[in-house]
Write a structure and sequence with these properties.
Layout: H1 2-27
Length: about 30
């Protein structure tokens, strides 16, 4: 159980980063 929590916790920042990246690319299309 602890391993699953750890994995989810480490994945969360990546998801947040992708979310911000998609927003910035949407606002400022290159």
């Amino acid at each position: 159980m602890t391993q699953i929590k750890r994995i989810r916790h480490s994945i969360h920042p990546l998801v947040q980063f992708q979310y911000l990246e998609s927003i910035s690319s949407f606002k400022f299309p290159s």
